[in-house]
Amino acid sequence: MAKAHTHQDARVLLTTFSDTLASALHTKLKRLLGSKPRLAERVDVHSLNAIGLRPYKAHVGQTRIASREVIRELVQKAGSAVGGHKFSTHFLLSEWDQVVDAWQLASWEAYRDVVRLGRKTRLPEAQRTVLWSIFERVRSELNIRKLMTYAALFSALATAIVKINKVVYNFAVVDEAQDLSVAHLQFLAALGGGRPNALFFAGDLGQRIFQCAH
């Protein structure tokens, strides 16, 4: 926590991608800063999803996050409703997670033109047309149920932070950064606000759990 030491009034965010890891980091930080309680008070330790919900509610509004089970249900339902294709539920879910939802694609044109980096299956325009008709149903159903995904939350939050132009954290330290999503990175970039050395990432691509179309 060198930044907290050298910047006496700075607020620091220590974050990672899961609640379990955030809890472990918090325990280790308490041991490390046991003799410096005032310093520890200026360091917040949370998972990214947890830290995203609070400022979203403060600056954007209340929201309900769609669970993984709900997303699967909607994707399966939309895939069956469209029919006439051979895409598996597994493929549809991964395409939703890693492309459509990750990049918050809101139109056919955006999906048609997106570069699907990291995706092994090539998709000609005819197949993308079918897929978009499926994902459009998923997006519509989420809106009807007034649900949003974490990717949508972080994307909206990034925009809100830029607009209010307020420093939420002076510095952010991100552990296990290899598992960050596109929306997480947008949010962290907004937190950093273009300030020099505002963000520090620690990770190992060899330990990546989630694949994302970066």
Output the helix-strand order. HEHHEHHHHHHEHE
Query: Which strand order does the major sheet show?
Result: 2-1-3-4
Strands, total number:
4
Gap between N and C termini, in Å?
Answer: 29 Å
Q: What is the level 1 CATH name of the largest domain?
A: Alpha Beta
Round the Cα radius of gyration to an integer and report it.
19 Å
CATH architecture of the largest domain: 3-Layer(aba) Sandwich
What does this 3D model show about the protein?
The chain has helices spanning 2-6, 19-32, 37-41, 48-59, 68-82, 89-100, 108-113, 125-144, 150-164, 182-192; strands at residues 12-16, 43-47, 171-174, 199-201. With 214 residues, it is of the alpha/beta class. The protein has 2 domains: 2-63 and 150-207, P-loop containing nucleotide triphosphate hydrolases (Rossmann fold); 68-144. Strands 2-1-3-4 form a 4-stranded parallel β-sheet, sandwiched between helices. Strand 3 (171-174), helix 10 (182-192) and strand 4 form a beta-alpha-beta unit. The chain is elongated, with a radius of gyration of 19 Å.
